[in-house]
């Protein structure tokens, strides 16, 4: 009899535990999305395909990546699970899978965003399914889930306990009425952060509380006028141009003046921050690389001086020596930044953001 009671107790306990941990999934599309320039037909991509049709082919492809997009939600679940469907399996020699294809979870604690845990993509499958965090207390908390930096997400479902609540935040920890729109290179897109939340636009988002739009296009931020036209169509309180690493000195000479002039003419009252290229560490040794970087810096400085002489105002300039320190330890491959480099980059840009937004 005692043995039977013990078996029954074990079964009941196991069932209760199973019921408690039964997961109910909610489409991330029904929650609060930030980091989007405009609505798109494919909800987890950055620019709608209709709007990229006149842009370079490489930009069209990269615009489908979900860099900078994040989901805000509140839940009292003690466990958070995620299912996400990737367009393809990626390999980058200078980026971890978590960064290019994984998820990155933060929680708003005492008014500040604190790292929680990541969703690690499994090899060999586009369908990812993973418990991100468990064994939490059951108080209502606000979370922010960053999407992959260098992959396209076709679907994202967030799982919580069956009996828990999940909803859009009543008081979002990001002020979506203040928008910083950033255009730039692979560094802006997030190479080579260890995880999506360590790309420097994401760091700036958490430090400022503003909605930061990541329009980084790896290797292809070359200041084509079509991109200036798109930027001018995006509602913004501040534009940041960190695109000098990609165009050649000749392209900067040919395109940068018209690019910035057009943006200013279309948005006369919106401040612009122009950032020089980071100096490539390998350029200290590879003379050809060093000469190219020096040429880029020379040409963009000429453009800045020309625009200032013409009276353009609300226009800020950040030089390369201010960006990632001088100890030569901030890159992974001589070009792309580590988390240390991204933290330094964010710290360098932050005072100008505050100054521009205050003015």
TrEMBL record:
Alphabetic keyword roster: Signal
Source organism: Pseudobacter ginsenosidimutans
Keyword check for Signal: yes
Protein name per the record: Lysophospholipase L1-like esterase
Domain SGNH hydrolase-type esterase N-terminal: 25-166
Pfam short name (any one): Lipase_GDSL_3
Matches recorded under InterPro entries: Ester_Hydrolysis_Enzymes (IPR051532), GxDLY (IPR032740), SGNH_hydro (IPR013830), SGNH_hydro_sf (IPR036514)
Domain annotation SGNH hydrolase-type esterase: ranges: 177-354
Annotated signal peptide: 1-19
Domain of life: Bacteria
Single GO term (MF): hydrolase activity, acting on ester bonds
